[in-house]
Amino acid sequence: MKSIFYIVAFVLLLALVIPSAQAEWVAYNDCVYQDTQFIAKNVTTLAIGRNNPYPESGNLLDQSNGKDTGVTITFSEFKTEGSLNWATDASTFDNGSDADNIFGEYVDPTGNISYGDAPGWYLDLIIENLDPDGLYTFAGTVNRNGGADYEDRVTNWTIMDADSFIYSSSKSAHKVSNDCVEFSTGVNTKGNVAQWKDIDPGKDGKIIIRTTHGQGVENGGIAGANANKGYAGGMFMLAYQGPQAISSNGKLATVWGKIRR
Description:
Blueprint: H1 2-17, E1 25-30, E2 57-61, E3 68-78, E4 85-87, H2 98-103, E5 112-114, E6 122-128, E7 134-141, E8 154-160, E9 164-167, E10 174-177, E11 180-184, E12 194-200, E13 207-213, E14 235-243, H3 255-260
Antiparallel strand pairs: 1-14, 2-3, 3-6, 4-5, 6-13, 7-12, 7-14, 8-11, 8-13, 9-12, 10-11
């Protein structure tokens, strides 16, 4: 009888520790969408910037079925001399690039959230209501597609407030540190992305993705980056990978642990 009990308990344990396909979801947001553009079903269009007609905050949707994920995102801008701009410049990504592989079936890359008018601006993408015992993947990118004269327009992407994560940005992007990456977004047809996997949001269920201009070679950034011109975003993807084997409070995520909460 005891052996049956242990088998049942073990099966229930695996059900929580091993992520199931039914528990996982992927959500996409097009930060600059116009009615004439392609967009897949269940892709949100939350955004910020001058001329932006969409809400700056809202919940992400499971792209596969349109259900509310319960995860809230909010754009919050730190202004310098001028605010960010919601711009509709046409752009594309190379076929087979990281950006194309992640976003190609869901989001048209046309459009960008453009820079503030002096150094020091930044945009925080605040992601809240995450499962403290879950793991997530984030990917973001943008392409102004401005030609050779725009190559010095660099974006710095930093993940903040997460307990842990694994850096997994494009190989051709410039890795500043495990939590920070830079690449040209003035010309990004080769489709670099900023990406982190196995993101543990911690007990508060919150992470922040901050974008700003290049930080300069003296701070580990790309040499020759423009002092303030870079693009704060164009699209992002958030995926729920499933529950952690170990919860954020350091306990094994068992059935009994869930019941006691």
